[in-house]
Amino acid sequence: MLIREANAADWPAVWPFFRSVVRAGETYSYPLDIDEPAARALWMLAPPGRTVVAVDDSGTVLGSAKMNPNQMGNAAHIASASFMVDPRHRQRGTGRALGEHALAWARAEGYRGMQFNAVVESNTGAVALWRSLGFQIMTTIPEGFHHPTRGYVGLHIMYQRL
Prior knowledge:
Blueprint: E1 2-5, H1 11-24, H2 36-43, E2 50-55, E3 61-69, E4 78-85, H3 94-108, E5 113-120, H4 124-132, E6 136-147, E7 151-161
Parallel strand pairs: 4-5
Antiparallel strand pairs: 1-2, 2-3, 3-4, 5-7, 6-7
């Protein structure tokens, strides 16, 4: 697996799984009916943000991540990131590789920590992955996310000092 900078030619491979993951309504707080131009603007970041793709040996896009300062100004020393793995390519270590890549990027860029603002508590695979990479649940907003089948569930804020 190779993780590299995303470019405009990658978006047509990212958009179908981005749309699928968002429309499922189980893990992201993006509008369920987000259109392609809005999704592209949200995901394909300009500096100081960064978007990457994970590709296999044949060039197939397995997943993507975006990394950016969590806030502006005097809070811009804390990074954030978001991750999506194509459901057809899960369970291959793509999420872990993207997470490790994002952490290495944040350290190299001089960030002092990385914060995830909205990890759905029922997304147990993601919660376990982030914990295994050193993130802690700082707090949980009770009923902070409306899951389509589970009702209102908690929304974790997770953090790791770098």
